[in-house]
Amino acid sequence: MHIAIAGNIGSGKTTLTRLLSKNFNWEAHYEDVDTNPYLNSFYEDMQRWSFNLQIYFLNSRFRQIVQIRESGQTVVQDRTIYEDAYIFAPNLHYMNLMTTRDFENYISLFELMSSFIQPPDLLIYLRAAVPTLVNQIQKRGREYEEAIRLDYLKKLNERYEGWIKNYNLGKLLVINVDDIDIQDNPEDLAMIIEKVNAELHGLF
């Protein structure tokens, strides 16, 4: 089974991936940020490196999905291939940080790849307001994220909401994370675990 966690930068995807993996004894697949050779360059010069970064993520996530399906294990994945194609790449194109030529090339490649993969059995979307995202980003203190602009996060949030509204590839669980703390409050985590259990094993 494939469970995927979607959400904006700083919404808590990695934390929830780790906690669900531990609770359910699922294998965790994390987003490739530590060894990504383009992230630092991208935040320093988005226009120059946007296409390279998106292609890197597309390749990385496609490989992850192939591995997930081949493993036969239940896997929880931090971020999906769809977010790159429906949120991050279009947003970079909209902001004139990716050329139309590069964007069309990227989308063509994504459409081909997505024809070979199955969507997740359950998608968990972490909905967070911009102040929550900023607070989380500052708390984790990644140097390359210090340059992220508020308008960038806001635009991404708008695209996330549009994507989730029309999501119809499988089961969907939406969690508002503004008023919960799954890291330090066991009750909040228990509530999410209960909801995940209901989605995966419930009668309806």
Structure at a glance:
This protein is α/β, with parallel strands linked by helices.
Describe the protein in words:
- The structure is a single chain.
- The chain is α/β, with parallel strands linked by helices and 204 residues long.
- Helices cover 57% and strands 12% of the residues.
- It has eight helices and five strands; from the N terminus they run E-H-E-H-H-E-H-H-E-H-H-E-H.
- The protein has a five-stranded parallel β-sheet with strand order 2-3-1-4-5, sandwiched between helices.
- The model has no long low-confidence stretch (mean pLDDT 91).
Q: Topology of this protein?
A:
Blueprint: E1 2-7, H1 13-24, E2 27-29, H2 39-44, H3 46-71, E3 75-78, H4 81-94, H5 100-114, E4 122-127, H6 130-140, H7 150-165, E5 171-176, H8 186-201
Known CATH architecture? 3-Layer(aba) Sandwich
Count structural domains. 1
Which strand order do you get reading across the main beta sheet?
A: 2-3-1-4-5
Which CATH top level class fits? Alpha Beta
Strand content bin: 5-15%
Q: Helix segment count? A: 8
What series of H and E elements makes up the topology? Answer: EHEHHEHHEHHEH
- Principal-axis shape equals globular
Under CATH, the topology can be stated as: Rossmann fold
Give the helix/strand class. Answer: alpha/beta
Q: What's the average pLDDT?
A: 91
Low-confidence blocks of residues: none
Helix content: 55-70%
The tally of beta strands, per DSSP, is 5
Q: Going by CATH, what is the homologous superfamily? A: P-loop containing nucleotide triphosphate hydrolases
What is the end-to-end distance?
A: 18 Å
Biggest sheet: strands, sense, closure?
A: 5 strands, parallel
* Rg on CA atoms, Å: 17 Å
